[in-house]
């Protein structure tokens, strides 16, 4: 697993997950989640407790890692740095930031290695309310996930 310099993700990977397994009491307190879940993910875990919650949380992190690894560490760090100069201290989901960047590139028809210009972002904002534009964005997102993550869609 790679934290890409993000302290929230690093803390989760290096401290949070290992500590939760060291202190988990399956016999007397299986409902206790222990893990604070400080790093945000995209699935709702409200109905889960204990090891079920930890399991789904860790699976989500693993899927994010699989997604991010498709781009390489240098690319992910560049996208994060472009998003926020202090991304290391950013309490946001980094896979979401990268995914948004990918979708924006697809919408304006640029390679992922090309820098998005202010005019590109304005174009996205201006067209964002149009139904066909929203359908294109949705289609891109669905095609992207289908191409790269179809084999993992039932892991949650």
Can you summarize this structure?
The chain has 156 residues and is mainly alpha-helical. The protein contains six helices and no strands.
What is the mean pLDDT? 83
Order of helices and strands: HHHHHH
- Runs with pLDDT <50, length 5+? none
Summarize the biggest pleated sheet: none
Coarse shape: elongated
The percent of residues in helical segments reads 55-70%
Q: What is the radius of gyration? A: 18 Å
Tally of strands: 0
Measured between the Cα atoms of the first and last residue, the distance is 19 Å
Assess the beta-strand content as a share of residues: under 5%
How many DSSP H or I helices?
6
Going by helix content, strand content and strand pairing, the class is mainly alpha
């Amino acid at each position: 697993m790679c934290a890409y310099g993000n302290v929230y993700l690093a803390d989760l990977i290096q401290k949070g997950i290992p500590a939760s397994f060291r202190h988990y009491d399956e016999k007397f307190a299986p409902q206790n989640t222990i893990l604070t879940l400080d790093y945000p993910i995209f699935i709702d875990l409200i109905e889960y407790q204990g090891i079920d919650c930890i399991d789904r949380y860790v699976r989500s992190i693993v899927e994010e890692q699989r997604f991010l690894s498709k781009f390489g560490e240098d690319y992910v760090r560049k996208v994060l740095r472009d998003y926020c100069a202090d991304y290391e201290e950013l309490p946001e989901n980094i896979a979401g930031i990268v995914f948004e960047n990918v979708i924006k590139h697809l919408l304006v028809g640029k390679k992922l290695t090309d820098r998005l210009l202010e005019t590109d972002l304005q174009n996205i904002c201006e067209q964002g309310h149009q139904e066909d534009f929203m359908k294109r964005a949705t289609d891109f997102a669905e095609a992207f996930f289908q191409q790269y993550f179809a084999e993992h869609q039932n892991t949650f």
